[in-house]
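tl;dr need the bound structure. longer version: we got a ligand (hypoxanthine) that a collaborator sent over and nobodys looked at where it sits. i said id run it. heres the input, straight from their email, havent touched it
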Amino acid sequence: MWDKVQETVNFLKEKGFVNPDFGIVLGTGLGNLIHIIDVEKSIPYGEIPNFPVSTVKGHSGNLIFGTLSGRNIVALQGRFHYYEGWSMQELTFPIRVLKFLGIENLIVSNASGGVNSKFKVGDIMLINDHINMMPEHPLRGANDERFGVRFVDMHEPYNLQMIKQFKAIAKHKDILLQEGVYLALQGPTFETPAEYKMVKSVSADAVGMSTVPEVIVAKHMCMNCLGLSVITDLGIEGKVEAVSHEEVQLAAKIAEKDVSLLVKEFVAAYQ
Ligand code: HPA
């Protein structure tokens, strides 16, 4: 793994991916951000050595180098999910690459089902903690100390300084920001009513199928993480309705403009 990461990093550095300030995973809800990034380089995943290639509709795969609010960013346009069949090590490989391109600050976004009765479809939730209920752990197996320690501290999975600044920006922009705990399940099925109830009963606020493996691997390498989730459907008792991938994409669109604006402002302000 180490050699593969270094090989990919060297390839990208030669292509001009140098001195990045932020890594951004453009999950559902942040796809729009691509329109306000000044893209200098866009490389299809298939042309990058060792990169996995995404198969899900609406998750096209390109690695982007560009500037946002005058800061250098590397963005993953398209992410990899466990339910697609990737191993945890494969799907988090790009996060390892971001770290060795020199990135310390990671911004991740996703879509999720809200189980908090205060939430509505289209809300933006700042992820302040997570619960990992994926069936496999990305750090299982021999630990390579060059990446990080065996037993990773997770007392602050989402960086408190980033959270504080992000909240201040949302307040300043008068954009409603929910806050809560994201619980990760493997999917690809959406939850049954009983499963949504379980999610709520373990004190989570939203449930989705991504992000947590990436944040775990980022924390393994001591990166600072900011997580955003767009609530695209509700798993609230008595109100659980049918949901489809298309509806999730459509609901995410409601929030995309605001999410992009907040991230743009955040990137400009965060030191
Ligand atoms: N459950 C899991 N993943 C999701 C959901 C959901 O309700 N909505 C969007 N992604």
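gonna send this back to them w/ a short note. The longest strand covers residues 224-234.
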